[in-house]
Every structure is written in structure tokens, then in C-alpha cells.
């Protein structure tokens, strides 16, 4: 919603959001609060540090010499592939889609529970499965449709309780490291994390992460998971 | 603001055979390294042992890292210490820096980790906003003699409200609204997806609005 508030979305995304706002009082209220928070946050002051203590500064500079590498960067729970971002256009599209998809399903299916101060939790009771294009994981590479369903085996499940996100790999083959797709369940959509090794069908929004060290397909956000076989 | 005195002192130590890359000054006098090629040149100069290059990196990011640290920690003196620690790690690590990420992302990531470590060590507890500022009625009755005083008071209120946010929410607010990061850049620093950043920012703004609602009359 922040890109919408800042006027950074393209015309067709703006139109979709505004059409949705006509019908959704919850989103209108959310928008008002976000807009107020956004306006206040724009007034955050910027501070100037004091002049550096010269001997300390010189000591810092003197340290700039080849030495043993420091592992000051924490290794993420998943090395390498977890949690990377997409292109800016995908970022704004994702932000729009998360809100519209979740609230569209909320309005059309009437299956939701509102939380309090911490925000709304959304329970998805039914989906129109005809919306989702059934594809294999390798076929996702050439996919152009936004809503996909794909089958695979669950690997590397990672849950972030504080963020309310669950991420996992869906691999093509149970016994070999073949094609995979990264799947992410995020707020405000909640569902149990799939069991490691389970054979599932994942429904969600198809994306591609084009970052240099990533270049993988994603289903993000995940909108539903059905277990095929344990 | 670029500190000419410090720069002058450091330039005296510059290796005459290898002049450091010139520092670009953005509007307002704050140095910025905005180009990946410029980053690469500076890092390579540091790796060759050029003290002037180290100083340019320090001056380019010191203010930004200080702001992030100040908002994350809440104390200017401690924030200065964190800045020093961050740059100690930066300069130690530059010898092996391989541009798997941008220099900016890497430095901010170090600062992010350092602030998190600080909180784990200190176990800082937060004071309610009203205890710091008084109630909104008390603020209303304070003398408000000029526009500048009013603006500073509003900034203080908003700043303190942000300082009350949970760390993860606070960080995305600061990175976006103080440091000007995009969603993509925040995701790289925080090692999470753009969607997570967007979700976190939305929740942070709603939380901020709720905390500041009692003070809306003066904002």
C-alpha cells in the first residue's frame, strides 16, 4: 500500500486498488491509517554525528590492512537462497497483490477473523481453483500467468514466528536435487507450515527472482496448500 | 555536513603515489558513493593500503550509520560507539570483500547486526511514550513560541514514537524514511524478501499511527 500512497504504482495497479477500495471498508480504514503513519514518518529527523575523535579515527584507518576475514555477517538460517528480493516492479506488484488477493478472498469467501492491535489475520476457507494454472516446477520457467498451482516435495522449511512468515523449497523429485521453486507464506495469510518431505500442491502467485545470485522461480505469496501424499 | 578539518588532517597522510578517488559531495555537503564502479575503485584502493580511500568510505557512510544506530539504540554516545565498531569491522573485512553485494548493503548489514547484538547485550526496556513526553494535554499547554520550536517538538514526538516500536519495525521505518532505501535494498540488508519488507513496513506504519494518535492534535 505504501507504493500506492506514494503514487509509485502504474495506472492499472492503481485502478485495481481503487476499485477494490470501493467495496472494502476494512481496506479503506487500513489505507487511512497507513497514510497517516506514512505522513508522520516523513517528518523523522535526520541527525548529524559529532566530529570523530581523531586518534580513534586514525586507529580505524590503520586497521584497513589485509587480515583474517571476520565472519561479522551472520549466516542466514538457509545459506544462499532464502529470502531474496525481486525487481522493483515485482516488489510493488507483490505489495499490491498481497493486499488485493488476501482481501479479495476475504470478501468473496467470507472466511476471516479480525485480530486487534496487531492487525488482521486472514483464514482462507475456499479458493476458486479454476483460477490457478496447473504447472510442473520446470514449466514455471516459461509461465506468464499470475496464479499457478504446482506439485512437489517440501524441503528446508523455515518459520519466522515474529514476522508470521513460512518459507520452504518445493522440489521436483523426492530423491534428487532437481528443479525447485521457493514458496513463501506471509502475513496476513496464515496456514500451517507443510511437513518436511511431504508431497503437496501449492497454490499462489508466480514470481521470478532475477537477482544475480538467485535466479529462481517463486510462489509468493502462497494462497493454499493441499497435501497429496506424506 | 562534510568535516573539512578532519578531511584536511587525513589528506596530509595520503600516499603521494596513489591519490584517493575524489569524494563526491551531494547537496548539503554530505559525501555519497553512488556508483558501483566508484565503490569498486575505492575498495581496491583500500586493499592497496591507501589511507585516503579508507577515509572516504568512512565519511561517505558515517552519518548514515550513525542515524541508523541512534534510532536503533536511542543513545547518541552508544550510537557513536556502535559506529566505531561497525567501521572497525568494515575496514578489517575490506581486505576480503568480493562485491557479492554492494559496499553500501554490506556496511548496513554489519550495522544491522551490530545493533541487534547491542540489544541482546543490553536488554533495553522501553519507557511508554507518555512517560517521556507527557500527555498530549501537557504538550498543548507548553509555551510554543515559534514555528521552529513547534517543528522540533513534532519531530521529537514522532522520533520517540518510532523509538518505541519493536526493533524490526523500527528498522524498516528508519531505513525507508531516514536513509531512503528502496524495498529491494532493505531486503538485501535485512536478508529477507521484498514482500516481508512490505508487510513489515505496513505493520510498522499502522503501529506508529496508533501510538501517535493521542498526539495528533499537536502533529
Q: What would the keywords be for this entry?
A:
heterodimer; A: 230 residues; alpha/beta; OB fold (Dihydrolipoamide Acetyltransferase, E2P); 2 domains; five-stranded mixed beta barrel; 5 helices; 6 strands; extended; B: 219 residues; mainly alpha; Rna Polymerase Sigma Factor, Chain: A; Arc Repressor Mutant, subunit A; 68% helix; disordered N terminus
Describe the structure.
The complex is a heterodimer of chains A (230) and B (219). Chain A contains 5 helices and 6 strands. Chain A is of the alpha/beta class and 230 residues long. A 5-stranded mixed β-barrel of chain A has the order 2-3-4-6-5. In chain A, 33% of the residues are buried. Chain B has 219 residues and is an all-alpha fold. In chain B, α3 crosses α5. Classes of the chains: A alpha/beta (230), B mainly alpha (219). At the A-B interface, α3, α4 and α5 of A face α1, α3, α4, α5 and α8 of B.
Largest interface: A-B, 67 and 79 residues
- What's the story with the biggest beta sheet of chain B? none
CATH topology (fold) name of the largest domain in chain B? Rna Polymerase Sigma Factor, Chain: A
In CATH, the homologous superfamily of the largest domain in chain B goes by the name: RNA polymerase sigma factor, region 2, helix turn helix motif
Q: Overall mean pLDDT score of chain A?
A: 73
What percent of residues of chain A are in strands?
A: 15-25%
Structural class of chain A: alpha/beta
Give the C-level CATH assignment of the largest domain in chain A. Mainly Beta
SSE order of chain B: HHHHHHHHHHH
What is the CA-CA span between the terminal residues of chain A?
A: 38 Å
Summarize the structure.
The complex is a heterodimer of chains A (230) and B (219). Chain A is built from five helices and six strands; from the N terminus they run H-H-H-H-H-E-E-E-E-E-E.
